[in-house]
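Record type: monomer structure entry
Structure origin: computed from sequence
Chain ID: A
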Amino acid sequence: MRAIRLIEPKQRVELMEIDMPPVGARDVLVRVKTAGICHSDAHYRSGMTKAGPLPVTLGHEVAGVVEKTGTDVKTFRAGDRVCIHYLVSCGQCYYCSLGSEQFCTSGEMIGKHRDGGWADFIVMPERSVFLLPAAISMEQGAVMMCSSSTSMHALKKARLKAGESAAVFGVGGLGSSAVQLAKAFGASQVFAVDINPKKLALAEQWGAIPIDASGSDPVQQIRRHTGGRGVDVSVEVIGLPATMRQAVRCLAPLGRAAIAGLSDRTFEIASYPELLSPEAEVIGVADHLAQEMPLLLEFACEGKLNLEKAITRSVPLDPDVINGALDELDRFGDQVRVVVIP
């Protein structure tokens, strides 16, 4: 079968022919219909975030149709429309018992530690596969498996409650979901911070207050809108030191900043005025949880989460085209979410 694979860091991804993956007794073989291109994929290619063992098939946002099931699989049958929770976990270790499978002692992420979805087929354990309702397109179902699910996990970690205010720093793949999910959680005001006018216009269509960070300090703008108070929750999905610090500085007393943007760089916090005095919290966000998938799918079925306008382009399983899309992500360009259709 065909697969787009990372051979070495800092090198272009390549198209290869590889063997079909074996299907174990509790596995589901999925024919990939759509797989998203995430900024994390660009980080794996650049070497900023380590992926491997190499070579590895990239792609961790996956939706498709069940091709075959293992002998012990009871939940699915051939022909079912499904989407994939990208973490493969043991289900038995201490962290899995807590429902925090992202820290599973033997866990693997598809498209990073094991072969992902930029391919014709992918095999996954039954526990990582979810039925995709007919009301949700394959394209949206795939993108929801990272950008939406990670955004939901960030908002849940930040404990956003109905009536509270929120700010989302970055209106790319994750931010486009975070804006809509904050509204679905009942946020009274949602501020969308970006420097790209097209992305800000998109966020405004979803009911957010656009904050153009290209002209003036977004923290000051948010405080002007909130009478100097700031927001209860901020979500940072860019991964730049400046925006991570802004996500903390814009908080109201008792505010919570959820940092989800991948970065290998540090950022500074003025400990007393920005952290101790307001009793603020800075919360790290890693991946998402299988237990969060049903609510996410429910929001999409109800129309509270709609990524149709966030999916800006579809591309074939072509290495030149996919490398170009990764280059665009490296430049923080206009594209919000690009999907691969094998």
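Annotation 1: The chain has a mean pLDDT of 95.
Annotation 2: The longest helix spans residues 138-157.
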